[in-house]
Amino acid sequence: MRGVTPINPQKKIEADSNPVKESDYYEGERLTHLLDLIQRGIETFKLSNVNSLPEKIWLKKQIAIGINEVTRVLERMKSNTTDQQQNPRPPPVQLQVVIVVADCKPRTLTKHIPNLAASRNVPVLYIRDNKRASLRLGELVKLKTALAIGVKARGNDLNLILQQILTRDS
């Protein structure tokens, strides 16, 4: 077995982990402000849309809700490393931002999302609120709980509000 380098599993874990600084988390008053702004954007868009769809259908068109749907949309988006000739058609949906509950248990449920989002140039906002973040994120999308949501880039008021938040925090 000459020439074979043993794999150090500890190194692999460190390489896969995406370190998040304490300032990257939205919690407390900052979290309340973020969720209020998003809620206001949702309400404004719904009011301005005269022939509106039922609320659940409208939310589904604007927001990818849940870990599976966020993952699915991210996987369909073009990766930074993908050649344009390989897939000339743009994906049907682009995500503007992904919001992930940071204090979910087990952590492995959402662990893949930050790396996948980074490979698609989609910013990730982490929220935590003493084990209540999933409840608060769920309230935003009219569900009991949600561990992850992805806001679809549709060019509406919600996207403008989130763009302001992202540029202010960067």
Description of the molecule:
The protein has 170 residues and is of the alpha/beta class. It has a single domain (25-80, 90-169), classed as Ribosomal protein L30/S12 (60s Ribosomal Protein L30, Chain: A), CATH 3.30.1330. Helices cover 45% and strands 12% of the residues. The chain has 7 helices and 5 strands, in the order H-E-H-H-E-H-E-H-E-H-E-H. The protein has helices spanning 9-16, 28-48, 55-62, 67-76, 112-119, 133-140, 157-169; strands at 25-26, 63-65, 95-101, 124-127, 148-152. Strands 1-4-3-5-2 form a 5-stranded mixed sheet, sandwiched between helices. Helix 2 packs antiparallel against helix 7 and helix 4 (67-76) runs parallel beside helix 5. Residues 1-17 have low confidence and may be disordered.
Distance between the termini: 49 Å
CATH architecture: 2-Layer Sandwich
CATH topology, which one?
Answer: 60s Ribosomal Protein L30, Chain: A
Strand order of the largest sheet: 1-4-3-5-2
Q: What is the CATH first-level class name? A: Alpha Beta
What is the strand content? 5-15%
Briefly note the structural class of the backbone. Answer: alpha/beta
Quick structural summary:
The chain is α/β, with parallel strands linked by helices and 170 residues long.
Helix and strand layout, with pairings?
Blueprint: H1 9-16, E1 25-26, H2 28-48, H3 55-62, E2 63-65, H4 67-76, E3 95-101, H5 112-119, E4 124-127, H6 133-140, E5 148-152, H7 157-169
Helix pairs in contact: 2-7, 4-5
